[in-house]
Amino acid sequence: MIDIFTTGGTIDKVYFDALSEYQIGATALPDMLQENNVFVAHRVTQLMRKDSLELTDVDRAAIHDAVAASDADKILVTHGTDTMVDTARVLSDISGKTIVLTGAMQPASLRISDAQFNVGFALAATQTLPHGVYIAMNGEVFDPAKTHKDRSAHRFVSE
Questions:
Q1: Alpha carbon of residue 123 to chain centroid
Q2: 141: Cβ contacts below 8 Å, ≥ 6 apart
């Protein structure tokens, strides 16, 4: 069983034409997994709908508590990319689980998005990596203790 916790971020942004802006909507994960014939046992829990820049220490504690309380030892967390490393570091004291965080640079609702690739890659990483906390983005696995987001390059890099 893989527990998937969603927190919002760009991956779940949708365009609201009347407002001329993107807002975080209901998670795209259940539909994405079904459309891509994902049959691995999983359950999806939407913890919050926030841009990662709006996440607080209280939010990170809620994510930590949900992951720690899960009876699954394989956890996938979808998260906004701007503060994904911060949350991954908060989760680093949880032992006995493989915890993988992923997200997207473009909303899953767009035709051209890295969301589906990143989720598929992160699902595979969750099933194959040893226990620990990881970031899986754009075909690479990162150690959050030695990683940061390079905003100008729109990618994660190891330090």
A1: 10
A2: 125, 129, 134, 135
| Alpha-carbon distance values, 66 to 109, 117, 139 (Å) | 26, 25, 26
Contact 68, 59 (CB under 8 A): no
What is the per-residue pLDDT across 14-51, written as a single tens digit (0 to 9) for each?
766 655 667 777 888 898 999 999 999 999 999 999 98
- β-partners of residue 103 are none
Q: How many residues does this entry show for the chain? A: 159
pTM: 0.93
Nearby residues of 2 by Cβ (< 8 Å), 6 or more positions away = 40, 41, 42, 43, 72, 74, 75, 76, 123, 126, 127
**Cα–Cα dist 6/28, whole Å:** 9
What is the Cα–Cα distance from 106 to 156, expressed in whole angstroms? Answer: 15
